[in-house]
Amino acid sequence: MSNKEKYKQWCENNKDLPLFYRHGYYQALFGNNWDVALDIRDEKIVGCLPYIIRSKFGFKKINPELFLPYQGVWINYPQNQKYATKIGFEKEVCENLLKQMPDVAFYHQMFHPNFTNWMAFYWKGFEQTTRYTYIINYNPNIDAIFDAFKSNLKWDIRKAEKSISISTSENIEQLYELKKQDYNIKNIPLNVPFEKVNKLYEYCKSNNCGELLTATDDKANIHAMMLLVWDEHTAYYLFSATNHTFKNSGAMSLLIWEAIKKMNGLGKNFNFEGSMIKSIEKHFRSFGGIQTPYFSIKKNNSSLFKLLNR
User: Fold this and answer.
1) Continuous segment of H or E residues that includes residue 210
2) What is the CA 236 to chain-centroid distance, rounded?
3) 211, 228 in Cβ contact below 8 A?
4) Would you call 21 exposed, middle or buried from its count of C-beta atoms within 10 A (0-12, 13-18, 19+)?
5) Domains within the chain, CATH numbers bracketed
6) Along the chain (310 residues), what's the average pLDDT of each consecutive run of 10 residues?
7) Residue whose C-alpha is closest to residue 110's, from 298, 302, 301
8) pTM here?
9) CB 182 within 8 A of CB 242
10) Which one of 49, 243, 285, 301 is most buried, by most CB atoms within 10 A?
């Protein structure tokens, strides 16, 4: 049985695995163009590191992928480990996974916020940059979540509630066109093929781990749309667009608030999935989530690739 076949079997029986590590998710988005390193002990997977190899300038590389905000190592911990044992276990798993990784000119992945011990990578010459996301943890008191919002955000949402309604949709083409319009206005190329967006949506719809939310007014104008995805414990703000004509209507803030309420009702956390862009970070921060670090880990193994990739 290949690593991928073992991984598929393990994923099917491991509900705690985040969405972005699941075998089916990789297959849906990348077909067979991916692989996974596994640490297996006593026929049990204790660690995994899925990856996709790309080519540039004739060199092989691994880098962050579209709709994979988190990659890197995932560890399946034994129960009741002492802290010192846990740290040593993390080191061993990472070392075992790194031994299996293919030779590439460049490696770069964004690691899940749950991964906090990158020493094994440091000792192998990797570099790390800390990035941040905001996470709203599940709270049975939904009013407490809203109370944590900044006052101007509350005002924005209450204004939007008077004229905008939120509903689900299955028109993924509409979201994509809205995104294209937004990027065209900003004179930025949208390097996101529709085929990839559609594959993502179809996978999430068929596996009940995502839905498309739409904000419209009483004249059926679309103000904003969001593709919301989730796993067993967390929902993710993954792909969205705002209609530039109605950019000041507060629709996106309302859309996010409705998504938070809906996911909180299912007992899930809400992860804004970044961003390090200053203006976006300010907006996400206003929702009162916990600033949560995660690692960007990279290593350049070729001075020629580094020179060409400047």
Assistant:
1) strand 210-217
2) 6
3) yes
4) buried
5) 3-132+294-308 (3.40.630.30), 138-288 (3.40.630.30)
6) 95 95 98 97 96 97 96 96 97 98 98 98 98 98 98 97 97 97 92 96 98 97 98 97 94 98 98 89 96 98 93
7) 298
8) 0.95
9) yes
10) 49
What does the block give as tokens for 33? 């163009």
Neighbours of 75 (CB within 10 A): 21
**CA gyration radius for the chain?**
21
Q: How many CB atoms lie within 10 A of CB 12?
A: 12
Q: Cα 160 to the chain's mean position, in Å?
A: 27
Whole-angstrom distance, CA of residue 53 vs CA of residue 198: 22
The amino acid that residue 168 corresponds to is T
State the angle between helix axes of 151-161 and 251-265 in degrees (0 to 180), rounded to the nearest 10. Answer: 90
In which residue are the tokens 């440091």 written? 122
8 A C-beta contact, residue 234 and residue 55: no
